[in-house]
């Protein structure tokens, strides 16, 4: 379908809303598990077309159809753009579906002689028979997190530019059409084997008014990608919130891992201030009027050090990053300004999406599952080896306590520890002189670098957050008991096509690739 021109959003519902049964599809594989749904690949039996089915989770819904699904459907019905995932239709199941019935039958056979277990199973069957509602999407081979976390995956600079350009184009379309995405992160950026990138998961998206009528919730956007204004309690905000997340994704693509891995909201804010400097009335007019500023402002002055931390990025990349990771949302670059950045017009130019390599399909959910299985296999073999060597050295005591495998102990996160280092990409990251291709669209004049010269002063940065309690409205730390991974020890986990970073391995930038923060989606209350 042709994309609607910016400003001319499609107002006609172009999709069929629930007139067909899910039995028109055969489920193939479980590829995603989100807060609000399970995602499967499926084949439409009549046409053979492969699609993604997102089953809307109804089990926790006391108040009917989940608001996130209503939002997602309402907004996606109207957005039609090559960089926004296409919602094809909604299908329903009146009761348990063919494959569920088959599975239930199989499970019942297995449970036959298991007494209480059998009763439990029957209860589960009753809940399954509720039926369901599915969103049918065009199928995309990967999500960005799944693709980047794969061991050995490297992106070249033209590839990063190509993905970034598409991300910005899709977001520009949303923003022009007054839609805020509010959950930009790697697992919500889908990529197909034609190199197309599309924004997905509009469950937190929202229409906004530029005159800021009414208040919006600030508990949106996955923590690591959440901008400082939301963390300081802003309830009147606009597209700039998504642009902060874009900055985080951009740095992550070049750097090889998430750059701001806060454990909770105050810690996230502190990490932001450590990197971007303390906010004040000069670099961010009216910041002191934000609701939680007094509670959460840093106790020490911190200097901006984006340029030092990411000094290994090339000049144009750093300039773009600097304008995206700008504290003041009013000075942060818009999607249009970012698209006009020198970065996209300097050699090497973004590659043609079609020229990108084709990869075996990879979604965050599957990548995590594979890693979990890998860890389990490693543990089993480690344990059997150690038992073997104990046997040879000296006999074990008779009552030997079996210990949990190291990665499951304490605060370690099974998914984030011991990630294989991401391999370094090719080294063609030195750009030639910038030159715009013929017929380039009009470009914004490069705005002044409001951050001024960079000052590296890591000594200043310890414990900037004043440790005062987070305002009562704040959520419980999403990371309770699962702090960030231990600092990386050497081995230079490389970025994608970029030289070794020039930061201390003990800083937050030295931590290994990790799970991508925590979605705020399990917060249904009062979301606006
Ligand atoms: N159209 C699609 N094609 C292929 N994979 C998809 C598609 N839509 C979603 N997925 C996969 O399923 C995952 C979860 O989808 P989605 O984010 O829409 O669900 P969610 O319940 O809203 O998740 P979350 O709670 O993480 O926000 C995605 O990260 C992606 O890997």
UniProtKB/TrEMBL annotation:
The reaction(s) catalysed by this protein are: L-threonyl-[protein] + ATP = O-phospho-L-threonyl-[protein] + ADP + H(+); L-seryl-[protein] + ATP = O-phospho-L-seryl-[protein] + ADP + H(+)
Compositionally biased tracts (Polar residues): 400-421, 519-528
The family database entries (InterPro entries) matched by this protein are listed as: CDK, Kinase-like_dom_sf, Prot_kinase_dom, Protein_kinase_ATP_BS, Ser/Thr_kinase_AS
Name the SUPFAM superfamilies for this protein: Protein kinase-like (PK-like) (SSF56112)
Top enzyme class: transferase
Q: What is its EC number?
A: 2.7.11.22
Any one GO molecular function term: RNA polymerase II CTD heptapeptide repeat kinase activity
Q: Where is this region: Disordered?
A: 95-128, 356-528
Enumerate the residues binding ATP. 54
GO biological process terms, alphabetically, are:
positive regulation of transcription elongation by RNA polymerase II
**What keywords appear on the UniProt entry?**
ATP-binding, Kinase, Nucleotide-binding, Serine/threonine-protein kinase, Transferase
Which cellular component terms (GO) are annotated to the entry? cyclin-dependent protein kinase holoenzyme complex; nucleus
Bias type Basic and acidic residues, positions: 96-128, 356-367
Protein kinase domain segment(s): 25-344
Q: Where is the composition biased (Low complexity)?
A: 476-491
For bias type Pro residues, the affected ranges are 435-444
Whether NAD counts among this entry's keywords is no
Similarity comment: Belongs to the protein kinase superfamily. CMGC Ser/Thr protein kinase family. CDC2/CDKX subfamily.
Official protein name in the record:
cyclin-dependent kinase
């Amino acid at each position: 379908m042709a994309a609607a021109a910016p400003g001319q959003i499609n107002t006609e519902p172009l999709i069929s809303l629930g007139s067909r049964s899910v039995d028109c599809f055969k489920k193939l594989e479980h590829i995603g598990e989100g807060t609000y749904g399970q995602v499967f690949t499926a084949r439409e039996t009549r046409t053979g077309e492969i699609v993604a089915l997102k089953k809307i989770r109804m089990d926790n819904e006391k108040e009917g159809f989940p608001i996130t699904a209503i939002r997602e459907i309402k907004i996606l019905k109207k957005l039609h753009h090559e960089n926004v995932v296409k919602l094809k239709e909604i299908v329903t199941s009146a009761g348990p579906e063919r494959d569920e019935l088959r599975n239930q039958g199989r499970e019942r056979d297995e449970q036959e002689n298991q007494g209480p277990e059998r009763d439990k199973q029957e209860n589960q069957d009753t809940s399954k028979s509720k039926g369901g509602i599915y969103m049918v999407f065009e199928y995309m081979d990967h999500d960005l997190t799944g693709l980047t976390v794969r061991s050995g995956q490297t992106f070249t600079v033209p590839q990063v530019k190509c993905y970034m350009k598409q991300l910005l184009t899709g977001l520009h379309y949303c923003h022009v059409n007054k839609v805020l995405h509010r959950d930009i992160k790697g697992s919500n950026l889908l990529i197909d084997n034609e190199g197309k990138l599309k924004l997905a998961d509009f469950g937190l998206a929202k229409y906004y008014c530029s005159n800021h009528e009414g208040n919006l919730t600030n508990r949106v956007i996955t923590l690591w990608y959440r901008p400082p204004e939301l963390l300081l309690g802003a309830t009147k905000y606009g597209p700039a919130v998504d642009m902060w997340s874009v900055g985080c994704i951009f740095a992550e693509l070049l750097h090889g891992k998430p750059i701001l891995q806060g454990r909770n909201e105050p810690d996230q804010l502190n990490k932001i201030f450590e990197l971007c400097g303390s906010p004040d009335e000069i670099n961010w007019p009216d910041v002191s009027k934000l609701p939680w500023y007094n509670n959460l402002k840093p106790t020490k002055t911190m200097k901006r050090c984006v340029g030092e931390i990411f000094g290994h990025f090339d000049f144009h990349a750093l300039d773009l990053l600097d304008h995206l990771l700008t504290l003041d949302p009013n000075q942060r670059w818009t999607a249009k300004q970012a698209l006009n950045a020198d970065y996209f017009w300097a050699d090497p130019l973004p590659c043609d999406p079609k020229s990108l390599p084709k990869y075996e399909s990879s979604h965050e959910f599957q990548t995590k599952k594979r890693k979990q299985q890998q860890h389990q296999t490693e543990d089993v073999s480690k344990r059997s080896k150690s038992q073997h060597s104990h046997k040879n050295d000296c006999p074990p005591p008779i009552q030997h306590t079996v210990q949990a495998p190291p990665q499951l102990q304490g605060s370690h996160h099974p998914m984030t520890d011991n990630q294989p280092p991401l391999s370094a990409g090719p080294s063609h990251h030195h750009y030639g002189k910038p030159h715009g291709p013929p017929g380039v669209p009009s470009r914004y004049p490069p705005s002044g670098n409001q951050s001024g010269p960079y000052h590296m002063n890591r000594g200043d940065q310890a414990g900037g957050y004043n440790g005062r309690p987070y305002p009562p409205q704040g959520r419980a730390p999403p990371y309770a008991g699962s702090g960030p991974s231990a600092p990386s020890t050497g081995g230079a986990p490389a970025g994608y096509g970029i030289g070794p970073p020039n930061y201390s391995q003990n800083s937050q930038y030295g931590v290994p690739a990790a799970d991508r923060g925590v979605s705020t989606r399990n917060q249904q209350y009062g979301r606006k």
